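Researcher: Please predict.
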Amino acid sequence: MFLVNKNMKQNIYYIGIIIVLLLFISCKHQPNKEKTLQNNNLVTYAKGFSIQEYDNFSLLTIHQPWANAKQNFSYILHKEEIQLPDSLKQYPTIQIPIKEIVCTSTTHLPALEVLDLLGTLKGFAGLNYVSSNKVVELISEGKIKEVGENENLNVETIIDLQPNVIIAFAMDSENKALQTIKNAGIPVIYNGDWTENNPLGKTEWIKLFGLLFDKKKEAFDFFDKVVDDYNATLKLVKNVKRKPTVLSGVMYSDVWYLPEGNSWAAVYFHNAQSDYLWKDTKGTGSLALSFEKVFEKAQDAEFWINPGHYETLNDLEKANPHYKQFSAFKNKKIYSMALTKGVNGGTVFYELGPLRPDVVLKDLIKIFHPELLPNYQPFFYKQLQ
C-alpha cells in the first residue's frame, strides 16, 4: 500500500493551486479572435471606414456614410462559402471578387481607373458630370448606363443591371431609392470619402474598391505610393520661415463662405506652410461671414485661393466690384481649381483631387513657395487672368 505523508499532501495541494492559476491566466490572456481582429484595422488615415481581416473573410464597416451619421453599416466580404462566427451572422455577406458595379459619385471613378476596373462599371449617376476621358469613351460606346441622380435614382434601371454592388453617395438616411435597391437584394455600400478631413483619408477609400474586386495588393500599393509622395512633399517645406497669408472662398448672395479651421482645405493650407487667416476657427465645414468681416481681416492677404466658380478676374469684378479692393486681386495672386476641366466641362479637381492629395499639395506649394519646386507645373490650380 502506497502511503502519502503530510509533506507530499501539501506539495500536491500547492501544485494543484499553481496549475489552476496558470490555467486561469492562460484563459484570461488567450486572445479573443474577434477582439484581436478589431485591433487589426487595415485603414490608417480614414475615419469613415475600417477593415478587419479574418482567415477566410474580411469585415468591412462604414462608420461615416455621411456627415454626422449616427449609424454604422457592416458587411462580410468572402471568396467562398464559409462558416461565420455567430456574432457576425447578422451582417450581409458579399462574395468577392465582384464582377459588376454601379457608382453614384465622380470620386468613385478614379479608383476604378487606377485599378484597371472601368470595364466592371455598368451604371453611373450623372453621366454628364464625368471628367475622365476613359469613362467618357465607355459612355459614348453605350457600355455605362445612366441611373439618374443621387437623390432621384432610377431604381428600375439599377435592378435591371443587377450589379453585384452599388457604391452609394448619401447626405443622410432618407434616400428611399437606396432602400428599395437593398430590398431587391442588391448590396448598397455607402462611400463617405467626401466626409474625410485628412487628405490622405480621402485617398484611402481606394482600399474599399481593392477589397471588393480582390485587388487588395494593387489598391494598397497605390495608396502607399501616394502617402510616400505626400510625405516627401511635406519635407520640402519643413524649414520654411515665411508663411504667406491666405484668403479663401467667395460671396454667394450676401454671405461669404470660407473653410473652417479643421476642414480639408485648411489642412492643405497648413501643410503647404501658408498662414490661412481663419486657421484658428473650430469646425470642419464652412464659415458664413459678411463681406465687411472678411475684408477687415483679409484685405491685405497675399493669396486668394478657390474663389468659387469664377475663372477670370473680370468675372470676379462683375460679380462684386468690391473684390478689387483686396491686395490679392490687385496683385493677381488668385488661384482656382475651377479652370482645370474635363471633357464634359466638369471641374477635374472634384473627381480626381481626392485620390491625388500629393498633386494638390505640390500645386499649393508651387503657389506659396515657387522656389521649392522650380520645374513643377501645377495640375489642378491655375492663376486667374
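Model: DSSP finds 15 helices and 19 strands in the chain.
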